Amino acid sequence: MQETPRGLRLHIGLFGRRNVGKSSLINALTGQAVSIVSDQPGTTTDPVEKPLELAPIGPVLFVDTAGIDDDGALGQARVRRTEAVLERVDLALLVLGPEGVSRFETDLAATLRDRGTPMLVVRNKADLAAPQAAAGLGAEALAVSALTGAGIDELRQAITRLAPAARLEEPRLAGDLVPAGELAVLVVPIDLGAPKGRLILPQVQVIREMLDSDALTLVVKERELSGALERLKTPPRLVICDSQVVLKACADTPPTIPLTTFSILMARFKADLDRLAAGAAAIPRLKPGDRVLIGETCGHHPLADDIGRVKIPRWLNQYVGGGIKIEVAAGKDFPDDLSPYALIIQCGGCTVTRRAMLARLDRAGRQGVPMTNYGVAISLLQGVLPRALGCFPSALAAFERAAAS
Ligand SMILES: Nc1nc2c(ncn2[C@@H]2O[C@H](COP(=O)(O)OP(=O)(O)OP(=O)(O)O)[C@@H](O)[C@H]2O)c(=O)[nH]1
Ligand code: SF4
Ligand SMILES: [Mg+2]
């Protein structure tokens, strides 16, 4: 893996009315022709993403959006796609043209403030006219010209200044669970679903965190787990397994050794494990005919025995006794209206920001729809949830409270 994965980058979105120069600004900031520019309003129709190393911040992802204003010809779909970007970025650049501030900018600024997303106001096209005041938007404003490059360095510096606070703090994936000098055993099945020639992101990330905290890592397949544990003079501090082998890993690991799954670690890292654990309490209440939404944040090609599309639906139907209607929301699209669903089961979200995952969780919460994640759901369906949540007492308590209520 050469590049920093998308989900670990600072996501910076550009928003504003059509033709104010959003795409031109991305090109000026990156020094590359990332996005198509033209004097035709409405040139950008779909969000355009550009990963980049932006010194001294490091890896960022710029997201250019379609301009939104009151032109009736604008498709609702386009507006929705821009709004969806609004909820997943860490930092927003609100771009103004010489026309200055209108209702669109004040509305956008209010939405961003409500979400707690830091923003910068960028008064573009300063070469054409003296930039108008941007008072009332409640954010630092800079005058720039994407055309001449004036002010672009200052904009880069302002982004650099806001970056540390913009990125929502993520708990560590597992580094805090294993002290220096202690051992973590990772159980990684190598089946048809395993990507060729590499490990998946959460596995790589855990190994990296163990190195960062001077801990040790042993990586084995599920068949080798019990033999490996027998050979160790000192038991490991933690066993972390792929959710799909959690039943076997639990059986092969003495109960005195804490055990959890990569997906449960992702629930804590990317979202909120307590809330996702509480959501799993809805599983025993499901009845035939209920609709369950599977949320995936990437658009990977489903495999023959795909976890989200085949295995979880199968285990869920076995558990409930059949008749569960499964729907999948793949990629960045996630329905606004979640009310038809009795439960949402969300993937680890390795490709998106923590803000994006929390936005999904908040939306489900507002609509009173329980939401859990793959790892929590699978551990419950396999009957080992208390074991898999053993190192997270508050999550286990949240599940038990929700189950009792
Ligand atoms: N004079 C001047 N023209 C600019 C500047 N920035 C952009 N433009 C021009 O403004 C027009 C629109 O630029 P775009 O970058 O396509 O604007 P956009 O905001 O991405 O537009 P949509 O994708 O349609 O929403 C183009 O003709 C650009 O060349 C600037 O700083 N000064
Ligand atoms: S389905 Fe979710 S967790 Fe799995 S690879 Fe895609 S984004 Fe990552
Ligand atoms: Mg554009």
From TrEMBL:
CDD domains: Era_like. Gene3D superfamilies: 3.40.50.11410, 3.40.50.11420, P-loop containing nucleotide triphosphate hydrolases. Residues 173-270 form the Hydrogen maturase F dimerization domain. InterPro entries: FeFe-hyd_GTPase_HydF, GTP-bd, HydF_dimer, HydF_tetramer, P-loop_NTPase, Small_GTP-bd. Residues 276-389 form the Hydrogen maturase F tetramerization domain. Residues 12-125 form the G domain. It holds the Pfam family HydF_tetramer. NCBIfam families: GTP_HydF (TIGR03918), small_GTP (TIGR00231). This is [FeFe] hydrogenase H-cluster maturation GTPase HydF.
